[in-house]
Input
Amino acid sequence: MSEKDEANLMAMKDAAEKILRYSEGFHSADDFYDDSKSFDATLMNFLVIGETSAKLSAAVTSSNPKVTWAKIKGLRNIVAHDYFGVDAEEIWEIIKKHIPQLISNLEEIITKKSG
Output
């Protein structure tokens, strides 16, 4: 794995961890959405993840099919191009159901390189 790929994977992991930090302490999608600073910061980190994933080499993405690369890029496009149409409930579900797994998958990919 190239240093560029490793740096991009680390940036994605960092952004995903920020998403978890920025969303902790809220009890519902509505509570989270009502805190515009936390919600906006979270959406920005979804953009970072999507933009950075697009910079990964084909070798990294093709050899790690557990990560839903196309969905990551798709969510980036929704956030970037339909910002005011973003569904807070959907974002909340992604945070709760998919971000912890994404972090785990990214750690696994990074560790494979180091191991």
In short: The chain has one domain: 3-114. The CA atoms of residues 78 and 86 lie 7 Å apart. The two ends are 12 Å apart (CA to CA). Helices lie at 3-23, 29-34, 36-53, 58-62, 69-81, 88-97, 99-114.
